Amino acid sequence: MTRVAHAGVGGWGKNVVRVAGELADLAWIVDLDEDRRAEYAARYPAARVTDSFTDALADDSVEAVLIATPVPTHYALAKQALEAGKHVFVEKPPAMRGEEMEELVELAREGDLVLMPGHLLLYHPGLRKVKELVDSGELGDVAVVYGNRQNLGVIRSNENALWSLGVHDLSVILWLLGEEPVEAVAHGIDRLQKGIEDVVFCFLRFPSGRVAHMHLSWLDPHKMRKMTVVGLEKMVVFDDMELERKVTVYDKAPWEPAQTYGEWRTRTGDIFSPKIPNDEPLRLELQHFLELVANGPGDHREALDGLAVVRALDRLTESLRGG
Ligand SMILES: NC(=O)c1ccc[n+]([C@@H]2O[C@H](COP(=O)([O-])OP(=O)(O)OC[C@H]3O[C@@H](n4cnc5c(N)ncnc54)[C@H](O)[C@@H]3O)[C@@H](O)[C@H]2O)c1
To answer: I want to staple 84 with a disulfide (CB 3.0 to 4.6 A). Which of 57, 100, 205, 315 is the partner?
Structure first.
């Protein structure tokens, strides 16, 4: 079993460490909070629990590190771990600037190490089904993809709605379309905390001509976690708020222009929900990370996907700030 060190056992990190403890040999747990350290020392008596990330990295038997600390700490911790020769899984986004992410990817390449950002949704069985429908051509030419990620809260203070919420949808959109945007425009408002946008609308245009949109907000009455893909043959909606019908395929599309009137007609057929396995995305994600650790980073696809996401976030931020 791969020996791992885990950093950050907060709101989300507690899930990551739980699954890591099931799939790997959890040798170290690092957190700056004393109460959390006491809780985890009792829960995982076989692990060393510490506030020193450096001590965990100094253990030569540790092959890989998982980082689930707050976003502003990711780049420095991931860099330190890569420089110590460890494979790295780091929650999204691994860096807050494109140049920092490029540096991490370079370090991973030089050291032949895995650098995998926590793009959880790419491991969601529902979105895997959507990807399959896009790649198989069943939807026809994809024209538009748009994401809705809205709720009232969680209101963050060290990142805005674009970086906190948008990273999820952006990772999915870039993965579904397999290209990086040529145009990235964002507008938003910072009503609750100055300089931290609560509501952001983003528009992306891709080299193929396809476009995408994201509505990101923690100031909204609807709890929405939705991704819609509009193909010219079929359309599909992924809705993470649905318990059973996560994916709905609409056999509807524009139809041949009517000869007589010169107007487009539309075609409406069946609406169906394929069966989606109930596997936990986080488990699938960490299984993939451990497979990469065992087999090598290959073409560094995961790290490069992470770079594309941070690059797009950078450009959207520039647009948001009026650049
Ligand atoms: N994939 C997902 O669906 C998902 C969901 C929520 C959060 N996240 C990500 O997970 C990460 C953590 O979020 P959270 O909500 O758990 O945050 P949190 O604030 O609840 O917890 C962070 C923990 O890290 C500890 N910490 C801070 N600095 C540290 C350091 N230098 N070394 C070791 N420990 C340190 C804190 O004491 C705290 O226990 C963020 O990057 C967030 O974007 C991912």
So the answer is: 57
